Amino acid sequence: MAIQECHLTALLVTSVVAAILGSLQVGYHTGNVNSPAKIIEEFFNQTWKERHNETMSEHSLTMLWSVSVSIKDFGALLGCLGVKYLADSFGRRNSILIVNCLSVLGAGLMVASKTIEAFEALILGRLLFGLFCGLVMSLNPLYIQEVSPTLLRGAFATLNQVAFASGILLGMVSGLETMLGTEKLWSVMLSLSLIPALAQYLILPFCPESPRYLLINKGQENKADAALLRLRGSPERVLVELEEMKGEAAHTKLSVGIFQFFSKRSYRQPIIIVLCINLGSQLSGFNAIVNYSTRMFQAKFDEAKYLTLGVGAVNMIFTLVAFFLMERAGRRRLLLIGFIFIALCNLLMTIVDSVVHLVPELGSLQVLLVFCLISAYEVGPGPISWFIAGELFDQPCRSIAMAFASMLNWGGKFLLALIFPPLLKVIGGYSYLLFMVMALIGFAFTWFRVPETKGRTFDEIAEEFRGAENLPLHNKNGFNTFS
């Protein structure tokens, strides 16, 4: 598609980039604790020994570390509860700036934990940072989709996942022993997320608020017109988009409560779509690999940390692939491709894990399968699960829908981060079969029930649900499902 056709302006790009700096921070603190896990665990153990004059048992240390890793995702789950209030009360852009202070405070506590010799400060810091994660990973795609033109909406929303994956890779690199993942410098490593946090405070205030929020939520047509003109740079395009927004506003209520969101019949099918895509995505094994890849590789390779770095690199590369494919292939096709390949990779990983002790050379194949699984996840289910809710719901309940999707995402991450280490000890490689089942459920549901939304305005998508309460979502005419 031509850049002119999409009215790509410098301010639009700046607004999107400023927003995704928050996702970069989230990714960074997802990837940076993987490689130096043993060093930080030793800090936990040493702190405990100085207090109680005895070391922690291996089981207790494993559980404490699992809690330390998963507490961020639990905090994110709680943070999702505040999305609607913030987004609808203060606006999309201002809310991102407000929640950024949680990132700063959380990072500060994590850095201070070593100085004050209190592992509790690190855990509390990850909890506060988790609150930030739950809020910003809902607010970012919400803001990005509402400032983007229809023909670039999915691609720009995918940039949120690109930033997240880039943050994971940066975190993995900084956590290496040859970088900052050492006994002396691991606390410095935890402080680097403050750089994009500060950059966001410097850039985002100069970016416009969501025109759709200003017009539909606040009824401020003049401000919406001014914001849209700054973003598009074309008065003709502004008139077209304003008319589309007014059309959506005429069809919707001023506000929708949580009870109405879950009880209104026209919202039920979009809710089921969001539920199945997100659970299929988050419980398909990707998050277990990202959090514990170093430990998975350690049993077979001396340079496990560098293989983990490869995980981060593949993760980032294929989010970029998704960015370029999103408006060409469409959401539905990428979901189908992603889910079926994730299921296949999990099946093959189970088989390889069960025979690798007989044929050690198969260890290299296991690494390849991990890379393939990550590629499949990031091409479709990964980025789409974060923004699909914003496309399926109308303006009054879009913030609730994004919070709901985010809760499912972070709930799945929290569950896997908490149970994967003990699950791996109990059933070993057979745990991948559970992930395979979830991916197959995601594939089957997408095949039969998920519509295509690329190239359609918010009002066109919402009209399908408003116009036919019992619309079968595989309807080819209404949603161009297979095109």
In short:
The protein is mostly helical.
Report on this structure.
79% of the residues lie in helices and 0% in strands. It is mainly α and 483 residues long.
Outline the secondary-structure elements.
Elements lengths: L2 H4 L3 H22 L5 H16 L5 H22 L3 H8 L1 H24 L3 H29 L5 H22 L11 H5 L3 H10 L7 H7 L3 H12 L2 H17 L6 H6 L1 H18 L3 H13 L5 H26 L1 H25 L7 H17 L1 H12 L2 H33 L3 H19 L8 H10 L8 H4 L4
Helix pairs in contact: 2-7, 2-8, 2-10, 4-7, 4-21, 5-6, 5-21, 6-7, 6-10, 7-8, 7-20, 7-21, 8-17, 8-20, 11-12, 12-13, 15-20, 15-21, 15-22, 16-17, 16-21, 17-18, 17-19, 18-19, 18-22, 20-21
**What's the oligomerization state?**
single chain
First and last CA, distance: 17 Å
Please state the overall shape, judged from the principal axes of the Cα atoms. Answer: globular
What share of the residues does DSSP label as strand, in percent? under 5%
Give the tally of structural domains.
2
Please state the CA-atom Rg, rounded to the nearest Å: 22 Å
The counted number of beta strands is: 0
Question: What is the H level of CATH, i.e. the homologous superfamily of the largest domain?
Answer: MFS general substrate transporter like domains
Q: List the total number of helices.
A: 24
CATH arch. level architecture of the largest domain: Up-down Bundle
Helix amount: over 70%
Structural class label: mainly alpha
CATH topology of the largest domain: Growth Hormone, Chain: A
Query: What's the CATH first level of the largest domain?
Result: Mainly Alpha
Please outline the major beta sheet.
none
- Mean model confidence by pLDDT: 85
- Low-pLDDT stretches: 468-483
Give, in order, the helices and strands: HHHHHHHHHHHHHHHHHHHHHHHH
